[in-house]
Write a structure and sequence with these properties.
The protein has 416 residues and is of the alpha+beta class. The chain has 14 helices and eight strands. A six-stranded mixed sheet has the order 2-4-5-7-6-8. Strands 1-3 form a two-stranded antiparallel sheet. Helix 1 packs antiparallel against helix 2, helix 8 runs antiparallel to helix 9 and helix 11 packs antiparallel against helix 13. It is elongated. It comes from Actinopolyspora biskrensis.
Length: 416
């Protein structure tokens, strides 16, 4: 029976029209919050100006009041201009934005009369200095918004020299604004990071699919042809056919393995190692993900691949290899074993004395860079086993599923 398989996709999918190729960029999710901050600062300035006009004749030092109002106008115009651009939203500017409103607020102590201060009449800045709280909350998040709100409220207590219900209400408003806007900023920042990661994953997946199509149309077909023809010819060609078949299987597994990066920025090492399996390489990994920082996972994957390459090069085409990954919670253990002829005694030492890097030195360098240890167990005619132990940090232990204690047998070994 003839089967027709029809694959439907969106227009442009075949051309590799991924997010990165479309030029998509991630917009900072806090932009609306910065616009709200600028709007609040302008409205607060207008409100303060109205009260300034009303209270001006009663000020003790009206000239200083004019200086304060001019400073508010200048600082509002400058910060609104800077905050409207991504390049202007620097930590330094926000720090200065905590200082300037407080200086102008403190100057009001000299502008108002003693009676105005005791009666709770508005200062020149009125609610304008609350915009320092919104700036800190949007830039740095919840805790900074809470802290800035507490500082602004504390300054009011210090200036007035007394406490009443209205001042407590001002304190609650300052702190609440800082916390709520900080929570919104944290949420927007997290959403932006997740969207950026999703777009990177989409681009990587699209590129992987494109490469898979190219490989399928070229390399895999050639390997399949070599495998089939070698079996027909027999003899030494059959061995080449077997090798071609193994490489075909490994390559198919590699191009069919999806991205293994997790939402936390770490990588599933178990998913990477599965791609190394073939007819002569058995891979055993936990059913759950074994997550490590991307650089650590890449280094351990390279160690396993290098060890298997060494097996194929020195142990002969018929040698079997086994890859075992164990997650012990506080450390990850990777073992690569083969049933080849083993490494003759003194061979590694001779290679080192002759200045040759060799696979042992290469693997050891990678493992030591991770703060791990490596043990080589080998004897002539008894195969070779590499055991790599890499410690995890506390955060990594919390993110990883515990696979339980391992019953480890006692065996002799030499530290490579």
């Amino acid at each position: 029976m003839l089967r027709t398989i029809v694959a439907r996709g969106t227009p442009g999918a075949d051309s590799g029209n991924s997010a990165s190729e479309r030029g998509e960029t991630v917009t900072d999710g806090r932009i609306p919050l910065w616009r709200a901050h600028n709007g609040l600062r302008v409205i607060a300035l207008l409100y303060a100006f109205v009260w300034f006009v009303i209270m001006f004749p009663a000020y003790e030092r009206p000239a200083l009041g004019v200086v304060v109002m001019v400073g508010m106008v200048f600082w509002t115009a400058f910060t609104c201009w800077r905050y409207s651009k991504p390049s202007g939203r620097t930590n330094f500017l926000v720090v200065v934005d905590q200082v300037v409103p407080m200086v102008l607020f403190a100057a009001c102590y000299l502008v108002l009369t003693e009676e105005q201060l005791r009666s709770g009449q508005p200062t020149v800045v009125t609610i304008w200095h609350a915009s320092m709280v919104t700036a800190a909350a949007v830039q740095w998040g919840t805790f900074s918004g809470l802290l800035s709100g507490a500082v602004a409220a504390g300054a009011n207590f210090a200036m007035r020299g007394y406490i009443d219900p209205n001042m407590w209400m001002d304190t609650i408003l300052h702190v609440t604004i800082g916390v709520l806007l900080g929570l919104a900023s944290d949420t927007a920042r997290t959403s932006t990071e997740r969207l950026a990661k999703a777009l990177r994953t989409e681009a990587a997946t699209a590129e992987r699919e494109r490469l898979a199509r190219d490989i399928h149309d070229s390399v895999l077909q050639v390997l399949a042809r070599v495998r089939g023809r070698g079996r027909e010819l027999g003899g030494e060609a059959a061995e080449l056919a077997a090798l071609a078949g193994e490489q075909e299987t490994a390559l198919r597994a590699l191009v069919s393995t999806g991205p293994v990066e997790t939402s936390t920025g770490s990588t599933d090492l178990a998913g990477q190692l599965r791609a190394l399996g073939s007819g002569r390489v058995s891979v055993s990994v936990p059913a759950t993900k074994v997550t490590l920082p991307a650089a650590d996972a890449s280094a351990l994957f390279s160690v396993a691949r290098e060890a298997l390459h060494n097996v194929a090069e020195h142990a002969g085409p018929r040698a079997q290899a086994w890859v075992l990954l164990e997650d012990l919670g506080d450390e990850v253990v990777l073992s690569i074993r083969d049933d080849g002829p083993g490494i003759p005694e003194g061979r590694l030492e001779r290679a080192a004395s002759e200045g040759r890097m060799g696979v042992a030195q290469s693997i050891r360098g990678r493992v030591e860079s991770l703060g791990g240890t490596i043990t080589l167990d080998t004897a002539e005619g008894e195969g070779t086993e590499w055991e790599i132990q890499v410690p995890r940090s506390g955060a990594e232990r919390g993110d990883s599923a515990h696979s339980g204690d391992r019953a480890r047998g006692q065996h002799g070994g030499a530290t490579a």
